[in-house]
Specification:
Distance between the termini: 61 Å
Radius of gyration: 23 Å
Bound molecules: nicotinamide-adenine-dinucleotide
Shape: globular
CATH architecture of the largest domain: 3-Layer(aba) Sandwich
Oligomer: single chain
CATH superfamily of the largest domain: Aldehyde Dehydrogenase, Chain A, domain 1
Helix content: 25-40%
Number of helices: 15
């Protein structure tokens, strides 16, 4: 077990107060995280403000190189980062687990190096020249969740740095250690103050709230729940901060009558159970046409039954525990309520500690809480429909609008249904796939703004129009 530090102005900074970060598979302490005070935040913001004066003036080539160097650092330390991530987050090393997440973070960092926002000439004639410039904003505050902590920190930090901003990042108290380590690695290749980290337990100190209010921070990029996102939005109003909010989802999958149930079972399973269901754009409710309903239920249960669940540090595990008690209790409450209304195809009873087996509950109706609430865990409700218009209406009958999917042998027909779903990403015969060149974000209460691609990069800039 070791102590972890903040990084402020390129230096390790410890806090007088610390808190335990527990391994969700065993309950053992993985490390002690610093419980930052408001003074630490002020120091971090001040360091980032000073660094901004020079970093914002660096050439494109310097920032491209910085992103590439960060990608290389992540690559050099990939296995150690993955081991730490598994111990604090719970996800397995293998499958779509920690090694996958660290590899993704490295790839995303490298891709961000290739993005650019060149000056756009809006007009160039005898009336004059009008150019649109994209300028860095200042200090960006990044607030991240516990489900994909390293990947999401890279999604926030790299485009900010690429476009000339400086950063203060605050990870979730449930999985902060790998992010604190990531920022140390970044500081091996960046000038002091460009990326700083702070951390808090959210009980005795809530640095996320303090960041949202801080007058020295120009923009908040936040990934987390809708409720906290609303608080960030309200708190940030006073200083008119720019916001990118990536919030919760309750993604629907719609299975059309023409599918082969066995052929889609694997895709359906991983669409829902990626990272044990603790993924914003996981499939969280499944609508299946009555003509294939029994076949899909059976094929999905057969596939899920064979999935090895165990401590993430065991190489054979493919799913691990739920990350924390609060999340576990939410899953259990929703499953307990659903069990009495629907038919349990698999799972349904909690395991040891924070382990909860993959759970499939069929025959639920559209208004059962496991369907209407974001469970964010390993439990999938299945709802039978007879008319595709009803399925589309029910899929859209949600305040959330992050992702959705349609499953069919007829891709053209699936595309027509997909285009009517109210969500920021929609997939045909898969669910949840994202890539660094495609903008990603939610509609309705699932957030505002996008990440990834040039559209995502643009969110870290102010527009300045130059008339000459
Ligand atoms: P959360 O909202 O509880 O916490 C997110 C972050 O906000 C943490 O760092 C937390 O410390 C911080 N925080 C707590 N109180 C705050 C306050 N008052 N002001 C500012 N920050 C505060 O979310 P979580 O439980 O860590 O993550 C799970 C949620 O995140 C799910 O709803 C999931 O769908 C969502 N999520 C969304 C995306 C996306 O891209 N849309 C990605 C991952 C997770």
């Amino acid at each position: 077990m070791s102590d972890f530090s903040m990084t402020i102005n390129g230096q390790p900074v410890s806090a007088a107060d610390q808190f335990d970060v527990k391994n969700p598979a065993t309950g053992d302490t993985v490390g002690l995280a610093p419980n930052s005070s408001k003074d630490h935040l002020d120091l971090a913001v001040a360091a980032a403000q000073v660094a901004f004066t020079t970093w914002s003036q660096t050439s494109d080539a310097v920032r491209v190189q910085a992103c590439q160097d960060i990608a290389a650092k992540i690559g050099e330390h990939a296995e150690a980062l993955a081991q730490l991530l598994t111990r604090e987050q719970g996800k397995p090393l293998n499958g779509i687990g920690s090694r996958f997440e660290i590899g993704g973070a490295q790839a995303w960092a490298a891709h961000t190096a290739s993005l650019s926002l060149p000056v756009k000439v809006l007009q160039d004639n005898e009336q004059g020249r009008v150019e649109l410039h994209r300028k860095p904003m200042g200090v960006v505050g990044s607030i991240t969740p516990w489900n994909w902590p390293v990947m999401i920190a890279v999604w926030h930090i790299l485009p900010a740095v690429r476009s000339g901003n400086t950063v203060v990042v605050k990870p979730s108290p449930y999985a902060p250690l790998s992010t604190l380590r990531l920022v140390e690695l970044m500081n091996q290749v960046l000038p002091p103050g460009v990326v700083n980290s702070v951390c808090s337990d959210d009980r005795t100190s809530n640095i996320g709230a303090a960041m949202s209010a801080h007058p020295g921070i120009r923009k908040i990029v936040f990934t987390g729940s809708i409720n906290t996102g609303k608080k960030v939005m309200a708190t940030a109003a006073d200083t008119v901060k720019r916001l990118t909010l990536e919030l919760g989802g309750n993604d629907a999958g719609i299975v059309l009558p023409d599918v082969d149930p066995k052929a889609i079972a694997e895709g359906l399973f991983w669409g829902a159970f990626i990272n044990n269901g603790q993924t914003c754009a996981a499939m969280k409710r499944l609508y299946v046409h009555e003509s294939v309903y029994d076949g899909v239920c059976a094929a999905l249960a057969d596939y899920a039954r064979a999935i090895p669940v165990g401590p993430g540090t065991e190489e054979a595990s493919v799913l691990g525990p739920i990350n924390n008690r609060m999340q576990f209790d939410k899953v259990q409450r929703l499953v307990d309520a659903a069990k009495h209304k629907g038919r349990v195809l698999l799972g349904g009873e909690p395991g040891e500690g924070l382990f909860f087996p993959p759970t499939l509950i069929a025959d639920l109706s559209h208004d059962d809480p496991l369907v209407t609430e974001e469970q964010f865990g390993p439990a999938l409700p299945i709802i039978k429909y007879s008319n595709v218009e009803d399925a589309i209406r029910q899929a859209n009958d949600s305040p959330n609008g992050l992702g959705g999917s349609v499953w069919s042998r007829d891709v053209e027909k699936a595309r027509q249904v997909a285009s009517r779903m109210e969500c920021g990403s929609v997939w045909i015969n898969k669910h949840g796939a994202i890539q660094p060149n495609a903008p990603f974000g939610g509609v309705k209460s699932s957030g505002c703004g996008v990440e990834f691609g040039e559209e995502g990069l643009a969110e870290y800039t102010d527009i300045q129009v130059m008339f000459s």
